[in-house]
Automatic annotation (TrEMBL):
<dbReference type="InterPro" id="IPR003400">
    <property type="entry name" value="ExbD"/>
</dbReference>
<protein>
    <recommendedName>
        <fullName>Tol-Pal system protein TolR</fullName>
    </recommendedName>
</protein>
<keyword id="KW-0472">Membrane</keyword>
<keyword id="KW-0131">Cell cycle</keyword>
<comment type="function">
    <text>Part of the Tol-Pal system, which plays a role in outer membrane invagination during cell division and is important for maintaining outer membrane integrity.</text>
</comment>
<keyword id="KW-1003">Cell membrane</keyword>
<keyword id="KW-0132">Cell division</keyword>
<dbReference type="GO" id="GO:0022857">
    <property type="term" value="F:transmembrane transporter activity"/>
</dbReference>
<dbReference type="Pfam" id="PF02472">
    <property type="entry name" value="ExbD"/>
</dbReference>
<keyword id="KW-1133">Transmembrane helix</keyword>
<dbReference type="GO" id="GO:0051301">
    <property type="term" value="P:cell division"/>
</dbReference>
<dbReference type="InterPro" id="IPR014168">
    <property type="entry name" value="Tol-Pal_TolR"/>
</dbReference>
<dbReference type="GO" id="GO:0015031">
    <property type="term" value="P:protein transport"/>
</dbReference>
<comment type="similarity">
    <text>Belongs to the ExbD/TolR family.</text>
</comment>
<comment type="subunit">
    <text>The Tol-Pal system is composed of five core proteins: the inner membrane proteins TolA, TolQ and TolR, the periplasmic protein TolB and the outer membrane protein Pal. They form a network linking the inner and outer membranes and the peptidoglycan layer.</text>
</comment>
<keyword id="KW-0812">Transmembrane</keyword>
<keyword id="KW-0997">Cell inner membrane</keyword>
């Protein structure tokens, strides 16, 4: 009789049951995956208008043109293009950069020209003390890419 009236004590588990948390996480993950593509709502903002000039309008850039035959042209301060040789181009650009270090220097290479001509001009401009050089391009008029 004594044995039947006595209760057997079980040891309590001190572990957290994480299965319900995993189920909730998976349900939330599915909900976010389904609703994320629908969140592409654009907000229209009417920005104020101002008559301020662009920061790029400071000065006319210096443009070094590399023609298809390898000859060089130099355009400064919006004037007409002048044909120059390598040494003359380096001397003129170095003088302009010395006078105004913030001047924009652009290289315009003919698409039918050789890469070697543009590469030489970039090296010459670096020797002339130009810190940053931009490469000019034109937007594609035909709309289709021509790959060879």
């Amino acid at each position: 009789m004594a044995l039947s009236s006595r209760r057997v004590k079980r040891k309590l588990k001190a572990e957290i049951n994480v299965v319900p948390y995993i189920d909730v996480m998976l349900v939330l993950l599915i909900i976010f995956m389904v609703t994320a593509p629908m969140m592409n709502s654009n907000v229209d903002v009417n920005l104020p208008q101002a008559n301020a000039k662009s920061l790029q309008d400071k000065k006319h850039p210096v443009i070094v043109s590399v023609n298809a035959d390898g000859s060089l042209g130099l355009t400064m301060d919006g004037a007409d293009k002048q044909t120059v040789d390598e040494a003359g181009m380096k001397a003129r650009v170095a003088a302009i950069v010395k006078q105004n270090p913030d001047v924009n220097v652009l290289v315009a290479g003919d698409k039918n020209g050789k890469y070697d001509g543009v590469y030489k001009v970039l090296a010459d401009l670096q020797q002339a003390g130009v810190a940053k050089v931009g490469l000019m391009s034109q937007p594609d008029q035909g709309g289709a890419a021509h790959g060879h």
